[in-house]
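Researcher: I'm comparing several assemblies side by side, and this is the next one on my list. It has 751 residues spread over two chains. Same procedure as the others: predict the full complex and return the structure.
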Amino acid sequence: MELQFYHILIPFLPLAGFIINILLGKEVTRYKAHWPAVLFVAGSWVCSLFALRDVMAGKIVNADLYSWIVSGTFKVSVGFLIDPLTAVMLIVVTTCATLIHIYAIGYMHGDTGYYRFFAYMNLFTFCMLMLVTGNNFLQLYFGWEGVGLCSYFLIGYYFDKKSAADAGKKAFIVNRFGDFGFGLGVFMIFLTFGTLHYTDVFSNVSLMVGQRVNFLGWNADLPTLIALLLFCGAIGKSAQIPLHVWLPDAMEGPTPVSALIHAATMVTAGVFLVARCSPIFNLSEVAMNVVAVIGALTMFFAATIAVVQNDIKRIIAYSTCSHLGYMFLACGVGAYAAGIFHLYTHAFFKALLFLSAGSVIHAVHTNNIQEMGGLKKYMPITYAVFVIGALSAGGFPGLSGFFSKDEIIWSAYAAHTPVGTFVWILALAGAFFTPFYTFRLIFLTFHGKNRGVHHEEHGHGSHHGEHHFHESPKVMTIPLMLLAVGAVAAGWIGIPPILGGGAHFAEFLKPVVGHPEFHGTHAEEWGVMGLSTTLALIGLGLAAFLYLRTTDLPVRIGKAFKGLYTILYNKYYIDELYNYTIIRPTMWFANHVLVAITDAKIIEGIVNGVPGAIGRFSQSLRKIQTGLVEHYGIFMAAGAVFIIALALLLR
Amino acid sequence: MVPLSWYMVLSMIVFSIGVFGFLSRRNIILMFMSIELMLNAVNINLIALSHYLQDMRGQILAFFVIAVAAAEAAIGLAIVIALFRNKATAHVDEMKEMQG
């Protein structure tokens, strides 16, 4: 199918919104900056629906728009590949972006950087759409770096706050590690195939089976090497172990940013990358196992950390880490469609959780759930949608999260490999932890008595102070309700056959990512489903028991297992580990070698030494300049004689 | 008919007098006059050769030299007057403000 006008509009409408707001925001649009921003993103959403209609009719677009770089045999264009995978990503990105932009009108109301916020959000949407629509690796890389840049801008949005500025830097620098590997992977693809276009690469992918290449003195299997290098980028962007440390800190940004960038879209780019490159990953069992194991470990460790945190947004951030782990786990056992399905449902329920948390923060002005409590009666809508999001995230039957999570757990079980079984056990543990920590969050935030301290400082009693809480405005609650509908119903398009559905989602993606072969009976499938649901119910029940009935018990458990609690509370000391093994030595090297020797001695030596030498030379030369005309006359005459003599002699 | 070499010898003598005068005199007016001598030695040479080669370009160049010499004399004398007003002397040994 030919490239249509609305395909081009999908990424470029948000770019137009960005240009309008960044150029005119300060003087013209100001507190009306949301109009261009929201309208252009919504327009992009409409265009995405048209694109989805085409793809569902079986029409796949793969066309070049513009020849970007031509250098010898290296040719790259700006082009669009809109196939089922891209269509799913387009719907996820534009739907979430539109709703979150609308929500942000209320959340960011009156902020001094209002236009700047919307400009960067639009730029982010543009980069994300370029990332998913690109038909070659370089455009993917462009979008990849673009979303990273916007993430940096928006994490450090409150740049006058040091922790926010630091968190932005941290996110950017940690991502550098992953992107370095990703860049090398793209180079290797070009070296191997001589092109960066998906279709050319993936149709010739079988050529590299069995090829070996010397990489840093390591005789590596080529598909494994390329897959692992690409996966490096995914680890960084999608906050997997060992590069997950930036995501919790990224919560310094405004909440809509956390919802859009650090839950629904950007962090899922890694999963998209793995699914997009599934032909390469399929060639390497080692790479697949690495993907599955890293995903499963991240899922488990992030979930355990989330259990003891007290910052409402950080809990959800660790939950995001954990769910991204689920997606990688699915990709790692070959069930790419299940991973993308979870990406799709996760976008709705996690954006919903973040935005509801934002609504809570908007009302109580604190992030610490230990200072909340009893908000249910003040914020009924927020409470209702939060519970829906949590049930969906926890995988309770009938909701979106259930179908996608069950699909992943079943895929891991049905893979029948040692790695598959290992990740299956961790996935079941995750099925227990997710509802536990989300409902711990809900019970501490919305139930019980208010434990807020700052309201009593008003001096007119706590029962008066409580009346300060109020539900968020409609511009915030309506997007919440729409997302809640998504969190409930978005998964219904992927109901597995065993529950009477058609697994339309997996069928839709089959042309792109294939379908793994499962060996399992219906009884096993029912059993696995029952097991994960039971675990989820136990998690919920335990949370209710600990945080509703015996509210003093969690503290006592924490005291009894002090060692474990401290380790979890300090996030396994990963930040401290990096601080001592990487940051401190780097800083020492910078201060004692680069600043003290390279900079002060070598660079300064050259920079100051050259003019110093010229100065000393001219000090001796100035003695010639006597100021007496006759001396100059003699020099001129002597020079003339010398030149004439030279001319005569050399004739 | 005076041969060319005589003109050249005359030019050379005049030029040498100019060079010697410029280097040996200390009075700035005399140095100026020496410069004029050198320029006129060049003019003699140009015109003699122009006539010998039957080419008018030498004479045109001589006019240019005369014009430049006139301008130079005007500016130079103005500088000399300004100097004399400031230092009350025309002796170049006493002017060494430009020493490095």
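Model: For your comparison table: Residues 455-466 of chain A have pLDDT under 50 and may be disordered.
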